[in-house]
Amino acid sequence: MKNEITIYHNPRCSKSRNAVCFLDEMELPYAIENVHVVEYLKNTLNKSELSDLLKKIGIKAEELVRKGEPDYKENYKGKTLSESDWINAMVKYPKLIERPIVVFRDKAVVARPKETINKLFI
User: Quick one: residue 105, left, alpha or beta (phi over 0 = left, psi -120 to 50 = alpha)?
Assistant: First the structure.
């Protein structure tokens, strides 16, 4: 398995910036070779990538949706969507994706709070 951490990051988000700093400062186990930062608003996720992340986190798509975002309020509030529809919504409006998401091997976490990252190494 690849010894790389990927963080899906929004540099305008303080929680996301804190998670990047936390990774920079922590003693990373497993001889981590690289911390790969993906600015997911610039490099948007496709359906397959988002589905894979959801499996690694172990949650339903709707649980990853930021319900305070204007795109949610204007387009989805009060609606019942299928798993596929929620994934399509986040692909169309990537600001809806909760952040930051940190991935290591076959696990991922929404790093809120940043210390949640430690669960990846258990």
Answer: left
User: For residue 113, is pLDDT > 90?
Assistant: yes
CA distance 66 to 16: 14
In whole numbers, what is the pLDDT of the chain averaged over residues? 92
Report pLDDT for 52: 97
Cα 122 from Cα 31, distance rounded (Å): 15
Distance, CA of 1 to chain centre: 20
Whether residue 91 contacts residue 61, with contact meaning beta carbons closer than 8 Å, is answered with no
Can you give the pTM of this predicted structure? 0.91
Inter-residue contact 56 to 106 (CB < 8 Å): yes
The structural domains of the chain, with segments of one domain joined by +, span 1-40+99-122
| Residues assigned a catalytic role | 13
One-letter amino acid of 38 = V
